[in-house]
Design brief:
By secondary structure, this protein is α+β, with helices and mostly antiparallel strands. Helices cover about 50% and strands about 20% of the residues. This is Transcriptional regulator, AlpA family.
Length: about 60
């Protein structure tokens, strides 16, 4: 498992920080992993899987 901080996530998902946090409220969004009171990371595999799902949704519409 490779853990990514927000800066690295936003390189993979090119949206603003505010939009990323809004998207985190969706039920299908990758779940953050809290490592401490001020440290949040995401699993790289979860982000990649979620990006593929979003691309598939775009192709289906």
């Amino acid at each position: 498992m490779q853990l990514l901080r927000l800066k690295e996530v936003l390189k993979m998902v090119p949206v603003s920080k505010a939009n990323w946090y809004l998207m985190q409220k969706r039920p299908d969004a990758p779940k953050p992993i809290r490592l401490g009171p001020n440290t949040v990371v995401w699993d790289k595999n979860d982000i990649e899987h979620w990006v593929r799902q979003q691309a598939d949704k775009d192709w289906q519409t």
